[in-house]
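Now for today's protein.

===
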Amino acid sequence: MDFVSNVGLRSQVQVNEAGSWVELGNNSLNGYESNVLYRNLGRAKTVNASMFDFADVGYIAGADCIEDGRAAVYTDIEGDGDLDLFVQSFGRPTRLLVNEGEKTGNWLHVKLHGTESNKDGIGARIVATIGERRIVREISTTSGYLAGQSLWAFFGLGDAKRVDQLEVFWPSGQRTVLADVDANRRLDVREGDVSATAKR
């Protein structure tokens, strides 16, 4: 531990003097921590019912590799409604973790096509209303350290078989409203249109 005790710390210097850093070259000092993958178990049944319980299922899912993970991006690579993960680790090839778990709920994927706004709808906000519940997604190109994200907006709908109202707030200031949108589909929404078409 003596070797790493001062890594990243500058040596003590006097005012107006230059300090020095420990030089490590192209090495990682993260150790051998396993990556984790958490499964949402639903509302907590103990202390605070407004919180959620999670369980680490990395070992079961094969996602607990000891490879110094740096970035993770989720997308639906198969178009089947569940989300898969791309994981980028230090000095390793990118890994694709395909979700082969049990299908437990309904879903909706939305892709925006801007006309007055930018063509990918970056900066748009999408609000799905199901009864009293509202789910909000924003279209962005970044999602963390060294990672981009899909331009699709992914909605997990649980038991709901349709979205009562889907609103898109475009960067241009326009607003698109769709009613009674069926679940378990990919949906294209074009700025300025009042209807949307399913895409399989």
